[in-house]
TrEMBL record:
<dbReference type="InterPro" id="IPR000086">
    <property type="entry name" value="NUDIX_hydrolase_dom"/>
</dbReference>
<dbReference type="Pfam" id="PF00293">
    <property type="entry name" value="NUDIX"/>
</dbReference>
<dbReference type="GO" id="GO:0019693">
    <property type="term" value="P:ribose phosphate metabolic process"/>
</dbReference>
<dbReference type="GO" id="GO:0016787">
    <property type="term" value="F:hydrolase activity"/>
</dbReference>
<keyword id="KW-0378">Hydrolase</keyword>
<feature type="domain" description="Nudix hydrolase">
    <location>
        <begin position="47"/>
        <end position="177"/>
    </location>
</feature>
<dbReference type="InterPro" id="IPR020084">
    <property type="entry name" value="NUDIX_hydrolase_CS"/>
</dbReference>
<dbReference type="InterPro" id="IPR015797">
    <property type="entry name" value="NUDIX_hydrolase-like_dom_sf"/>
</dbReference>
<protein>
    <submittedName>
        <fullName>NUDIX hydrolase</fullName>
    </submittedName>
</protein>
<dbReference type="GO" id="GO:0006753">
    <property type="term" value="P:nucleoside phosphate metabolic process"/>
</dbReference>
Length: 188
């Protein structure tokens, strides 16, 4: 691999780390770090569990979309199914579990498309983007968390693309999964 980025992949040295918050989904740390460039910097780190985002499609190009209340927007939003990976759970296992829990659909022929990071400046969360296939007639029981409810629909891929263009789908992970699929999987 040829690159002009001399420090690519080099890690910093954490000189000090103090936990300042411990919540149900993430922890917050104040860190002092010596960077690969030799700078000493203070940073906040949101230590967040890894997650999956699932692009689930039928054989006739229908996409599973869900709407759910999201506190970050203080509104109901539309996105692809997604959820946290439990501990050291394999991302494909987590994707299958999350898809069934949220939508009732059963995943088949799942594959990892890629893994992304959304805000490297303050969180260590990695989201694995998974493509899976479903049979619209094969349903299992949904199992929502006590504080969630997801309204699920099958939407034709052409309409999903139109929703993206209109800004009706705004989740970075969902947009990345859809664009990865359209640019690197579907055309291949």
């Amino acid at each position: 691999m040829t690159t002009k980025f001399k420090n690519l992949g080099r890690t910093g040295t954490v000189l000090s780390k103090k936990q300042v918050y411990d919540g149900p989904i993430f922890k917050l740390y104040k860190e002092t770090i010596k960077t690969p460039d030799g700078l000493e910097v203070e940073r906040d780190l949101i230590d967040h569990g890894n997650a999956v985002t699932i692009l689930a499609m039928t054989a006739d190009d229908q996409v599973v979309l869900g709407s759910e209340y999201r506190v970050g927007r203080n509104a109901e939003t539309v996105s692809l199914p997604a959820g946290l990976i439990n501990g050291d759970e394999d991302p494909l296992v987590a994707a299958k579990r999350e898809l069934q829990e949220e939508t009732g659909y059963v995943a088949h022929d799942s594959q990892v498309m890629t893994a992304i990071t959304s805000s490297e400046g303050f969180t260590n969360e990695t989201v694995t983007l998974v493509l899976t296939h479903i049979d619209a007639n094969e349903r299992a029981e949904r199992h929502f968390d006590h504080d969630e409810y997801v309204n699920t629909q099958l939407v034709p891929l052409a309409e999903v693309i139109a929703m993206m263009k209109r800004g009706e789908i705004r989740s970075a992970q969902g947009l990345c999964a859809l664009n990865w699929y359209l640019n690197f999987v579907r055309e291949a």
